[in-house]
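Escalation from tier 1.

The customer reports that the assembly of two entities below gives different structure tokens on two consecutive runs. Tier 1 could not reproduce it. I'm attaching the input and our single run for tier 2 to review.
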Amino acid sequence: MAETIYVIDDDESVRDSLLILLSLKGYQVQAFASAKAFLDAMPPVIAGCLLLDIRMPQVSGLQLQAELAARGIDVPVVIITGHGDVSAARSAFLHGAIDFLEKPLEEDAVLGAIRESLSRDRQRREQEASVVQRDAAMARLTAREREVMELLCDGHRNVDIAEQLGISPRTVEVHRAHLMAKLQVDDLAELIRLCRNSRPSGS
Amino acid sequence: MASETAPANPTRHHGDGGSTGLPGLPGVARVIVVAIVYLAAHVALDHLTYFDAIAGLAITPVNPPPGLSLFLLLRFGLGYAPLLGVGALLADVLVRSASPLSWLTWANAMLIGCGYTLVAAMLIRKKGRIARLRTVSDLNGIVVAATFGPAGVGLAYMLLNRLAGALPPDLAMEGLLQFWIGDAAGIILTTPILLEIVAFRRLPGLRNPEEAILQVGAVLLAGWIAFSTAEAEGFKYFYLIFLPIIWIAIRRGLHGALAANLAVQCSVLAAVGMLAARGVKIWELQMLILTLALTALYLGVSVSGRWAVERERQAQEGKLNRIQRVAAVGELAGSIAHELNQPLSAIAMYVRASMALLGAQLKQMPALDDTLHKADREVHRAGEIIRRLKQLFGSLHTPRERSCLDDLVKGSVAHAAGRARDLHVKLQVDCDPNTPRVEIDVTQMEMVLRNVLDNAIDALAGVSGRQRVLRIRVAGTGEGAVQCEIADNGPGIPPALRSALFEPLNSSKSQGMGFGLSISRSIVEAHGGSIEARDGESGGTTIRIVLPAARGTE
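Tier 1 run:
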């Protein structure tokens, strides 16, 4: 999936210059003149990061940040502002901003913040992808394989499991081999870790 | 005649009442100096006013030494109390040739000393160490002390001397009356003057000398009428003296009243021989003088108190105006910085983009490479200058304190009340007593509130045909924040201003710079709060200020 940098600033020259520079640096860039324009054009899944101005008419950058959080959209935000006041910075960081850059912007700072944001975003997406993958793999297990997995994760030996489920130890062996293949895990320790992560915490 | 500074000239340096009045002297030396000066003054004053005495005792129509004693203890503390007895003893021996070997001389001195020490102690307990007559309450303290003190001390003094046989029985009643009036007049005339003199340490200038000449002339004229007719008519025309004295007290405050009282008393003392020869009962005259003195003092203290309040208010107003001006400059600098930062930011990015566009080719064009780098550096320099400018104005803060927003709101409303009354604006203030506290820069927040209230009243000034109403509500939001809503039923926000109401240089007023709301927003946002304007429910404008509650109070 292509990573995009979304520049949201009401000043046309600032947008244009960032668009040119970041494009030249090899990034895919989209620029918006207002928070509303961004929200209207926003793709359902975002990969990349936001360069966000605070003081804009109608919806401010901080309000957009809150709106994204409310919609459950977890995208890294770098604040770019001409008014470097402390309380705005505090509020931005409180809502998870990666960095807070004061205008006039400096190329190195902007690129640094973008690299940091993108790597965080990548991590996040990988994590999400692995969760999706795992859930898909879990879904492919048969009911009996799932039972065996649960018991294995609770620390039971093959023999105990066979007894509990009323099947032969040899059959347990077979189920175990199948489920480990389906979940793409190599040993018991890895299985247990996977199992724990997939269970809702507290149970 | 001394005069006090009127509010037109508010820069007077007040000597503070807390100091001793004798700076730079070490403890023991100070005690000795105070003692010598007090004793010398005691004896001198006693000598000057020793006339028309009854039975050769210290019973005269006006007796300043108790006033001096009260001043000593009020100003320097009760530790000097033993001097009172010593002073009375010295005066009896030196002025009245009492025998230092007689037990009665010592007993009288002890009685006077202890009596007035008790009076001073009770006064201090009630009112504290009155350093200057600032309020009517201070004056009340001294008047009560001057009324009841001499009555009590006088009664004891009469009894003692009656029992010792020094006072004939037929003179006892008149003696008591004269003692009482003489000492009361002494205290009321002397103590306030001494307190003022020591508090100021230098003579205040005479304001409006032409008027002063007229005032002195009026006093002399009234005095001449009152006294020249006294032999034939009694003091029928004494009331005439009240007129110039009241005039002086109203125009010149406490200092004028004190000077006038002193002048009247001194004139009577100077003419006392002549008056007595014409059969005038001096203590009866003294009653009249006392009434006159009290009238002048109460008027003077009230007038001076009003001036002091006015000076205080002007100073406060001046301070707020200064802060407002500085804030306006800061806001201007801030908005210029913001506006400049946008193009500077773009230039910086364009320069870097140019470098990136040329890429490897740049190496072959060293002059262009050099020039682009110079441009790059200059952009940075401009950014630094702006950053420093913002730091300079960002540092103009006073520390924050935990305070009640409703107190501040009430204070600001009180400030606006005068204008509201003039413009027939009805003020409704509704403060929820359970509003959490806020952590704020009080001066800055007061500026915000005054600004918003002033704007609302300005808007209401144009309303006709309905009751002008300004409603102010303070309450907690229930979400860890406090809100203040200021709603007017004026014409509402002009559409032309609506989009950028809080931007600087945006004003509908011919005299406005358009900084008020912009500064207000900066201040509120610096407190982590928000300010917004919307149309009121029944027309007009509602400004809503939300501030986070102080930690631990929400």
